[in-house]
Write a structure and sequence with these properties.
Elements lengths: L4 E5 L20 E2 L2 E2 H11 L4 E6 L3 H9 L5 E6 L6 H13 L4 E5 L2 E4 L8 H8 L7 E6 L4 E2 L7 E3 L5 E3 L8 E8 L14 H10 L3 E5 L3 E4 L3 H17 L7 E2 L1
Parallel strand pairs: 1-4, 1-6, 4-5, 8-13, 9-14
Antiparallel strand pairs: 2-3, 6-12, 7-14, 7-15, 8-12, 10-11
Helix pairs in contact: 3-5
Length: 251
């Protein structure tokens, strides 16, 4: 399986991160010495992705300027400054830049620390496991005990073959970890310009074509100013526990 393009969802308002986001777009908020979006870009670099689309809205010129100065993959901008299109609508708007094949989709405000003892990055494993014949979407998932910053419960329940259904409060639910591989056909038949990816999750699950990949390492989501310190402490603790191997934080 080959994936050549990716998108980072970076157009959110970051209202829970105020007052920081009154003058800085949330993807540029720093955690452990680097902007949040840098973790996503570094993971895509390691996965060999050559084209990355980033959607922008709040304080867009600041983010566009930062992206223009970054070396690495070709970065294209999907401009949502006139109107936010939600997670699903944002991807559909960017499809002309992404191509017609499977693509990686990442959230700009979540990332993870790789378990380098496993020998392979999570994104590389996901690309290899994505089977367009049987899957429409392959979601990275995390257990509650390998997450920092998550305040809810589980999102999905995996079966023995990795198929996902919505978590209904019984058994061990897993978190959607803000990274997925999808085939654009999941958007067929949707005409509204603004919609959530949750609509696609439910459609894929109903067709038995929504699958999960259990990530290795530690997952972090940063939604408030207080969460920055929590994430930095978790990174330091994980690195301390796994000293001896490469421990760069990466989404």
């Amino acid at each position: 399986m080959t994936v050549q393009s990716a998108m980072i969802l970076a157009a959110g308002l970051g209202t829970r991160m105020r007052p920081i986001t009154e003058t800085l777009p949330k993807p540029l908020v720093e955690v452990a010495g680097k902007p949040l979006i840098a973790y996503s870009l570094e993971a895509l670099d390691r996965a060999g992705i050559g084209r990355v689309v980033v959607n922008v809205h709040h304080l867009a010129p600041l983010l566009i300027d930062w992206l223009a100065r970054r070396a690495g993959a070709e970065i294209l901008i999907s401009d949502e400054t006139e109107a936010l299109l939600d997670s699903g609508g944002g991807v559909v708007k960017a499809l002309p830049l992404l191509g017609s094949g499977p693509l990686i989709l990442l959230n700009a405000d979540t990332f993870w620390i790789e378990d380098h003892a496993s020998g392979r990055d999570n994104l590389a494993e996901m690309v290899d496991r994505f089977d367009p014949e049987s899957m429409d979407m392959l979601l990275m998932t995390a257990r509650l005990d390998q997450a920092t910053g998550h305040t809810g419960g589980g999102d999905f329940t995996p079966d023995s073959e990795g198929r996902l259904t919505r978590y209904r409060g019984t058994g061990d639910g897993v978190i959607y970890a803000g990274a997925l591989v999808l085939h654009p056909r999941i958007f067929a038949g949707i005409s509204e310009p603004k919609f959530s990816l949750n609509r696609c999750f439910d459609a894929a699950a109903a067709a038995g074509r929504l699958f999960g990949y259990a990530m290795r390492g530690h997952w972090l989501t940063v939604g408030t100013p207080e969460a920055i310190g929590e994430a930095e402490a978790a990174i330091a603790a994980y690195r301390g526990e796994h000293a001896g191997g490469e421990s760069e934080a990466a989404p």
